[in-house]
Structure formats: structure tokens, C-alpha cells
């Protein structure tokens, strides 16, 4: 799919950056004129992926989180969130709803939310090297009152 | 992010506001738990009317309060979640743990 636009940023894995990350990504996506529900879905999915980097990948350290957002043909948004943290030994298990290694106050729903709120989710991880989460969502094309596509 | 606590007899209402994520959930939990510990309510109401955003950290917050209240025989209710917040709650199946009132509590006990 042809790339039409791209945005990249790098953040430290500090929890104060969770809000900035989801707001920055959603602000970039607004050029596609998403619905409120679509923008909320993206904000929630980004928040989950960034939180995973902070809580799991860089559990006992502060590291870099790399975020890349691409606007592709057909109103598709691709969001890639990458860390160089500890990696996930068993990705299939980590993606099971309610599975968490972080203890009592974590719901274990991060990947379930990403899967449910986005059209496509791919997780590639290598222990000791890091994890890359790639999510895609097609933004609906709205027809303006003059008949043109928005 | 803030929590405003209101106590009406055996009911504690926690009015949450701002974004709930991993960064903000901890101080919110601490405020709520302090109110629960000192008032020993039979019903805890978490009001989401002024919550602008919530990810699954908010689910952890609700589930964690349920785990505290349930052994004491106390109940948990959630009021006024926005459509985005309700979507996350529904995905987590929170209806099984707490009564969710989209339009606020009808129960006169909270008045």
C-alpha cells in the first residue's frame, strides 16, 4: 500500500508520556477526518501499546519508545510502536485476555483492547531485543453534503 | 485528574475526572481506598461523568475496588461512562462485577 504521509517520534518510557503519545498520534490522524469513535479507538489502542512498553518492556529501567504513524492509501492508518526492552517470551500467551505478569491492578487487557479497537494487530517480539506492535485501522470515508467525499 | 469523595450514610460516591491511564490510576485508587477504609460503605459508586479518557488501567481500577469490596459484602456501581469508556468496560465484561448505569444512579440511596 502506497504511503501518503508519515510521522515519527521517540519518547522516554515515563508514564507521564502516555497522554502525550496518544494525543500526538490522534492529532496526526485527524487529517483523515475520522469520527469521534474512530479517534477514541486509536487513542485507546496507542495508550495500551505505550503502557505495555512502560510496564513490561522497560519494567526496571527507562528506555526509548519509537512511534511511527503512516497514512496509507484507502484511508488506512498504520501505527508502529517499538521498544528495545526485555521482549515477550510467549506472544500468544501474552495476547490472551486477562493474562498479565504485572500483578493485581493491571487488567491484562492491553492486547485485547488493541485487537478489538483496531482492524489489524501484529506483534513481533524477541527476548532481550524488544517488541514491535503494528496496528492498522481504516478510517471511514464520509460523504459531505455537496456529495463529495470528505 | 482528580477524585472528589462524597459520603451519604453507607454510600460512598467517588467522582472521577480527567484521563484515567496507567500514569493517573494509582493516585485515584489511593484516594478511593482511603475513603472506603474510613467509611466502610455498603455501596461504592464510581462516577465517570467527568472522565475524558480511559484505557484498560481504568478497568484495573474498577476490578481492584471490586476485589476489596466483595469480601466485605459491599457492592460496586459505575455511573455515567461515556460511549468510549463504556466500550472498554463492555469489552472487559465489567457488567459481571458492577452495576453500570449510563445515565447515573437511580438508587435513592445515593441522594
Describe this structure in words.
The complex is a heterodimer of chains A (150) and B (111). Chain A is α+β, with helices and mostly antiparallel strands. Helices cover 31% and strands 29% of the residues of chain A. The two termini of chain A are 20 Å apart. In chain A, β2 and β3 form a beta hairpin. Chain A has one domain: Histidine kinase-like ATPase, C-terminal domain (Heat Shock Protein 90, 2-Layer Sandwich). A five-stranded antiparallel beta sheet of chain A has the order 1-2-3-5-4, covered by helices on one side. Chain A has helices at 17-29, 36-57, 91-94, 110-117, and strands spanning 3-12, 64-72, 76-83, 120-126, 130-138. The two termini of chain B are 24 Å apart. In chain B, β1 (2-8) and β2 form a beta hairpin. In chain B, α1 (22-39) runs parallel beside α2. In chain B, strands 1-2-3-4-5 form a five-stranded mixed beta sheet. In chain B, 41% of the residues are buried. Chain B has one domain (2-106): Transcription Regulator spoIIAA (2-Layer Sandwich). Chain B has helices at residues 22-39, 56-69, 83-92; strands spanning 2-8, 11-20, 43-54, 75-79, 99-101. Chain B is globular and about 30 Å long. By secondary structure, chain B is α/β, with parallel strands linked by helices. Classes of the chains: A alpha+beta (150), B alpha/beta (111). The A-B interface holds A 15-16, 18-19, 22, 37, 40, 43-44, 47-48, 51, 54-55, 104-107, 109-110, 112-113, 116-117 and B 19, 21-23, 25-26, 29, 53, 55-57, 59-61, 63-64, 67, 83-84, 87-88, 91-92.
